[in-house]
Structure formats: structure tokens, C-alpha cells
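FYI - complex with 2-oxoglutaric acid, inputs then prediction.
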Amino acid sequence: MTLEEKLLALDLEGFYIEESVLSPMQVEEVHASTKATLLEGPEKIFGSTFLNHNQSLAPYLANHKIMEVVRSLLGSSARIISTSGNMSSPSPEANPSPPGNLHVDWPWGQSGASYIEGTLPNVVINLTTFWMLTDFTRQNGATIVSPGTHKAGKNPNGYPELKKARPTEIQVEASAGSVLVFDGRLWHKGGTNRSVVPRIFWGVNYAPWWLNCHARRPCSVEHKIQSDAGYTPAGHWPYLKGEVHDLLPEQVRPLVRHWVDREWVMSKTEAEAAIWDFSYFRDE
Ligand SMILES: O=C(O)CCC(=O)C(=O)O
């Protein structure tokens, strides 16, 4: 697919598949490492700063095919706002767990105060990417998407009547090493895994520099404002550890620097200096 074809697919359908981003050997390595980390503890499965626990995908996060699309839609300073490790385990054939719930990705329609109310504006502000480390098949519950719903103007989470309308759903089948790229507004969910092996993938979200992610950061003022106001704040995307950041490939560091822990920890004196030091303006 050419860049134009990918952008057109994202515009019309809300998603496309970038094939062969990882070679079979790379898939094998990242798969083994990711699975081992996920098996260490359930908290890691849903923790959205998976990069703190596992860096096996790091060398590929600035892949030129992905970044070309990301930068075309989100600008040259686009960055990564979250990374998650995902394992969808097999359910017994006799009693398979139901598929996930159709939803859109933050900030379009999750719980708490940090979502966009009312009709969603027709603008792309986040791209979700699922980096497949196992083949995605019908059998193992590959992601289900509802083409075109990114322009529906509503998230399905808060509007049960929209789910009842039963929009067309298709299951995204592709080989390990592929990346499913989609507009964060696209209605999607996980399928039921009827195979005998877990379906494993990384979720990586890209957004423009101006998207306010503080509501997702533990202990941030936004987070506190939302809980003080009685909202359930959106889930945590913990800071990236400085020592993890420093060991990342050179081209990946600028994509994640904005959420490195040490960049956000100031003493009161440093904060006062930063706020009140007028020498900062002298050269203007
Ligand atoms: O399991 C899947 O394929 C979908 C997961 C998902 O929708 C999500 O992580 O937001």
C-alpha cells in the first residue's frame, strides 16, 4: 500500500493493516520476551506503561512505515502516549468468554472526566497500533472493528442504543509481525479466543504533542482535580522510568521523553524558580 492508500483507508474505514513490520525472527524474539513478562503478573497485562517492564519492542517503535503515517496525520512532533502488553487467553470451547465490548480509545470515550462529551469532533487525535506477535485469526479472537464508525460522532461506551444498532463488524485477520493501525475513534473490541494458545500483542498509542495526557498520569494535578470533583479518573498510565528511557534506541527516545518520571519531579525551589525566574524572558 502507498502512503496515500493508507491515509485514504484511515479516512474512509478508520483502519488499515501494515504488513511485515517485524520479520519472523523479530516476532519470535519479541513474542517470547513479551509473554514471559506478561506471565510474571496480571498487573503487567493491563498496566499501560508496559515499556517499563519490557523493552523488546522498543527497537521497532519508530519504524519508518508506521511513523510516516503517524506524522502525516498527527504532525512531526507526534509521540507515543502509552504502551500496553496484551494477552488474550483461550477460553474453554464449552464455555467461551463473550467478546469484549465495542469501545473507542482514550480520550474519545472512556470512563471518568477526561473524555470528550457530546458529539465527537471529526479530527484524528490519536492512532492506536496493535503489534501482532501471534497471527490474528477468527479462531483466536482477533480484534473486531466496525469500519467507518470513527466518523459516527459518538462513542459507543456511553450510548447503549448505538450498540443495539449493530453496526457492521469485521474481524481483522493478519500474520504475526503485522501492525493494525486505527483511528482511536474507531469502534473496536477483542474477539473470543477459541484456540489453544494466547493471542499476544502490544498496543501502542501515538498522539500529537498538544494532547493533554496529564489526566492519565498518577498524582498529576489533572488527576487530582478529577477525583476531587467526584469523577472516577481515567486509568493510570504511569511515568516512564528514566533509566528505561536512557537505554532506548536514539530514534525512540524523543517519542517518549515527555513522560519520563524525572522530568516531572521538581523540588519546591526548582518549581518556584521555573515559575518566577523572569531572566527567562530577558532575551525576548
Ligand atoms: O483484544 C483486542 O484485540 C482488543 C483490545 C482492545 O480493544 C484494547 O486494548 O483497547
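The two ends are 47 Å apart (CA to CA). The chain has a mean pLDDT of 88.
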